[in-house]
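Recall that a protein's primary structure is simply its ordered list of amino acids. Everything else, from secondary elements to tertiary packing, is in principle encoded there. The following example makes that idea concrete.
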Amino acid sequence: MNEEYDVIVLGTGLTECILSGIMSVKGKKVLHMDRNSYYGGESASITPLEDLYKRFNLPGSPPESMGRGRDWNVDLIPKFLMANGQLVKMLLYTEVTRYLDFKVVEGSYVYRKSKIYKVPSCEREALSSKLLNFTEKSRFRKFLQRVFIYDENDPTTWDGIDPKKSTMKNVYDKFSLGKDVIDFTGHALALYRTDDYIDQPCLETLNRIKLYSESLARYGKSPYLYPLYGLGELPQGFARLSAIYGGTYMLNKPIEEIIVENGKVVGVQSEGEIARCKQLICDPSYVPERVKKSGQVIRVICIMSHPIKTIADINSCQIIIPQTQVNRKSDIYICMISCAHNVAAQGKYIAIISTTVETSDPESEIKPALELLEPVEQKFVCISDMYVPTDVGTESQIFISRTYDATTHFETTCDDIKDIYRRMMGVEFDFEEMKRKQNDIFGEDEQH
């Protein structure tokens, strides 16, 4: 291990594995280490089920009714992939898709007045949705028509809406959209966690709604994808990518010291040996002195023998409970998957609730979501601190990822990856460059 590397990566969370893969593709000499014996870090999928019981300190073993333990792959962090989103582009352009299989999530729903409704995301659904009354349907349809043709680079499509000056409130007012319509538009289509966006320039929100619609258009049932065998397959896929390009992986390696000289990282010590490096990427747990707590997330993993009863008989879905519906400041999310995704025993379902903690009694905050799932055979409750780096890394060359938030998609994770890349490399991340490099290696004819 007494070698010099361009980049050392600590931790095998998805963020770290993607950056490891990207740096390897760019020709960097990469050493990737993790104190754990498995891939995924905090975003791992736990198998067998017995290990999940141990992780949450539950007494005894899973009951026989849970089936074989090895049939389970339970995600610790619930997330779906937007079908036209940034992570899917990274997977496609880096050819990591060759290691993975996906299924389309079967439905996207929103909670309103204690009931669950399908999210209307196109004109046809808007006209038939029970979520909207007759007047709302007409106004929302016109709003969607305008959003779909909106192009920030073509002023002829703006219709008086300046993308950098008009706020989203101005847009909603222009189409006379009511509070309930604004609720599901901002939270179930644009996927905001709070209402802070309403008073900000509208460009990002319009782009988010277009992303939702474009993702939905790819497969029809919902805008979300989920990998067979769990999210733990994602970091492993990018680890394979890094290895193809010469990256070195070492699991089960205790990290004794990150060595800094004159304010700049020069290496990492493990088991008495030192690996030298020019740059370091790591998750917050490796550098507690360089991060600060930004809040908490509660996640509750629920094992059930039935799908969510208020929805049609489907194997997977997302439900968003907008904060205003339950007198909160942030949304509550539910992801449901099942044996159809090779993550649970036959006839079993996994639903994971997540939200940002707002009180001293986090479990009471997720009661509205838990009520939708009952009866629950077994639940696993985790309350995690969220951290953000206090060191941007330009001086120390230590680049620290952010803790996974409560959202059920990977867009914020991808934003973090692109931000770290920009600080490391001094240029913006270029999806097309990744695609060109793959063409150089594998040839145009082999691209999927």
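The radius of gyration is 22 Å. The longest strand covers residues 291-304.
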